[in-house]
UniProtKB/TrEMBL annotation:
Gene3D superfamilies: Tetracycline Repressor, domain 2. PROSITE patterns: HTH_TETR_2. Residues 36-55 bind DNA. This is TetR/AcrR family transcriptional regulator. Keywords: DNA-binding. GO terms for molecular function: DNA-binding transcription factor activity; transcription cis-regulatory region binding. It comes from the Bacteria. Residues 13-73 form the HTH tetR-type domain.
Amino acid sequence: MTMKRQGTRPRAALDRNEWIQAAIEVLAEQGVQGMRIEVLAKDFGVTKGSFYWHFKDRQDLFDAVLQTWRDGRIRDIEKQSVAIPGSEQAQLLHLIDVYGATRNRKGISIELAVREWARRDAQAAAVVAQVDTWRLECTRKLFVALGVSEDEAKSRSLLLYAYVFGQSLMACDSYDPRVNDFKRWIAKLIVRQQHEAPNGQT
């Protein structure tokens, strides 16, 4: 793929979103240090002029990557936390299953890379805080709809995400052949309504 020209103005063979998605792939594999213009251009088989047709500089790309990640995570949690009245508990169990799935290795890699970036960059840290706050608020509302107090709803939201992200990073399949049963039990314990016993028995 080579960059083409139209008159005296360069016409990029790639659109802005393609650059952003490629940068996110590199971020997941190599971290923020891997998001270099020359590397991305070489991978695409274009000149750096194509990049500068869409971005002012490398920081402009960084800003776009963070915004894309933030917007995507917020859209996703909004989608996963929509529940018709009376189905909040089932929706919370579904959410735990989705976010705790170790099969989503790509998503986990991107999440970890962004969080590592946030350790060293104030802008990335602010974006991560926005996403986490949004996630916690969405699940808090579901817990409140189950009839728990505000404080308990906030506590359970923290517990829910501490669990799903923590266990998703662990290689615990060999821990016990019943590990999937354990995970289901833990999920039910987190989201159970106040009148239910942890094992589902009254």
